[in-house]
Write a structure and sequence with these properties.
Elements lengths: L3 H15 L4 H13 L1 H23 L2 H7 L1 H24 L9 H20 L2 H10 L11 H34 L3 H23 L7
């Protein structure tokens, strides 16, 4: 296992990356603003499950295979970008329900929030690139199994991510309560959120792997 100095450095570097806005943070905040803190927390759980899958992939070398192929990287990148654009378009054309907002509908919406959160993170190739290019810098082969160290540091990253992402969800939930008192925001809400998703998808499409 990494020593305490390495662990502190890894935690500090991870925190800097975790507070940098990206698809995951944007998704969490938009859900929390629109549907409240509960939706934001559900989004956090979905995002972190996606991160855990990335950790497993990195541990068993799947991420390395992905990053070694420019074609595979671009396929995942464009699928992820397309999915974000799809979410934005769906939001723009969505007809908000004014009635029938019962608990069953709310629960169904929260389940959708969860599954979409998993996809948002899984289809972000930069997350896989993070675990391949950044995390290995903190691996010490003299400390034992590299796979065990990757898994351990990946879990540390996820625990830190839960703390930071939950903070974003709670903050966005408070902002959402204030915004929902503004009639102008309620009228423009779906256009704002949809445009953010589309812009993020376009930006994702134009990003590239540093080793390409």
């Amino acid at each position: 296992m990494p020593d305490i100095t390495t662990l502190i450095l890894f935690a500090g570097a991870s925190l800097i990356l975790l507070i940098t806005p990206g698809p995951s943070i944007i998704y969490i905040m938009t859900q929390s603003i629109e549907q409240g803190r509960s939706a934001g927390i559900i989004a956090v759980l979905g995002i972190e499950l996606g991160s855990f899958i990335h950790v497993i992939a990195a541990t068993f070398g799947i991420s390395a295979l992905l990053m070694a192929s420019a074609t595979a990287f671009n396929i995942i990148k464009f699928i992820g970008a397309g999915y974000l654009i799809y979410l934005g378009i769906c939001k723009l054309i969505k007809q908000e329900m004014l009635e029938g907002n019962d608990n069953e509908i709310k629960n169904n919406k929260l389940s959708v929030v969860f599954y979409k959160a998993i996809l948002v993170n899984l289809l972000n190739p930069k997350t896989a690139l993070f675990f391949l290019a950044f995390l290995p810098q903190f691996i010490d082969v003299s400390k034992g199994s590299t796979s065990a160290q990757i898994m351990f540091l990946g879990l540390v990253f996820i625990m830190l991510a839960i703390l930071t992402d939950t903070s974003f969800a709670l903050l966005a939930g408070s902002i959402g309560k204030w915004l929902k008192r503004k009639t102008s925001y309620l009228k423009a809400q779906r256009y704002i959120t949809g445009s953010i998703y589309i812009a993020l998808g376009v930006a994702t499409a134009f990003t590239g792997s540093d080793n390409k």
